[in-house]
């Protein structure tokens, strides 16, 4: 007959809840109580799998990755790079989708998902820095993305401002002067959207081109969002000769809508994106975009997190490295 948690509880002289807390690596268990439960697990042969074995060392060799939605191509490709980087260092990765929901993000920081991992890579979109710090506890945590920036938190950053400025400068060098931006609203200053918009504005100013808020169109960062935003621009009669999607999905949606409407790309309208997802190379025409250093981001984030895990908190200085970016010039905006 299989050994149950009730058997372990009886053998250790503790409650069923205490056994569950030990198995889930709850922080506030007395060491002597935890040891009695571990001894009972060993003696009875209960749950002789990774979780039970990890209780001895206090290490699961698992990293957690929390992101909004794996259907977003950049997140899917970043997750793949993170898994490769972790594998090379002897770790595995558990992935949780938050759906941009604050309750889901908080649950990943505090709940069973976190108890299964030694540390967490986290792309927050709903929680602010104070909420993250309050919920995170003592386990190592490294942030990705720019929705939250705080000097108290480890994070690996994209050069959003400089990279967006580089894309815009490239479009301006090609003779474009009416460059529409998809994925931000006039006045945005924070997060990836705000930082990329500020890079666009800086490049316009450096070239002596006036900023026009009518060319900035807010929308969801998806292909249908890019297509819809482009359709609204075309229907409004606002003149534009280039489109800068603040991610590649937006740019690809714009590219589709322009072609459906009979616009020639790049002759009538140049199109550029941001992220350099795999699909960008195979679009027709292929998509000019900026590669934000995704592989470097994954490598540095995993390395930083594992250093925190294996140093057991002895490294005190917060680290916030930036990844290098590069422009990928292709057919949509030569």
UniProtKB/TrEMBL annotation:
Residue runs in coiled coils: none
Any one GO molecular function term: transcription cis-regulatory region binding
SUPFAM superfamilies referenced in this protein's UniProt entry, alphabetically: lambda repressor-like DNA-binding domains (SSF47413), Periplasmic binding protein-like I (SSF53822)
Positions of the HTH lacI-type domain: 3-57
Pfam families, sorted: LacI, Peripla_BP_3
CDD domains named in the record: HTH_LacI, PBP1_LacI_sugar_binding-like
InterPro entries xref list: HTH_LacI, LacI/GalR-like_sensor, Lambda_DNA-bd_dom_sf, Peripla_BP_I
Gene3D superfamilies tied to this protein: 3.40.50.2300, lambda repressor-like DNA-binding domains
UniProt keyword annotation of Transcription present: yes
Keywords of this entry: DNA-binding, Transcription, Transcription regulation
SMART domains xrefs: HTH_LACI
Protein name from the UniProt record: LacI family transcriptional regulator
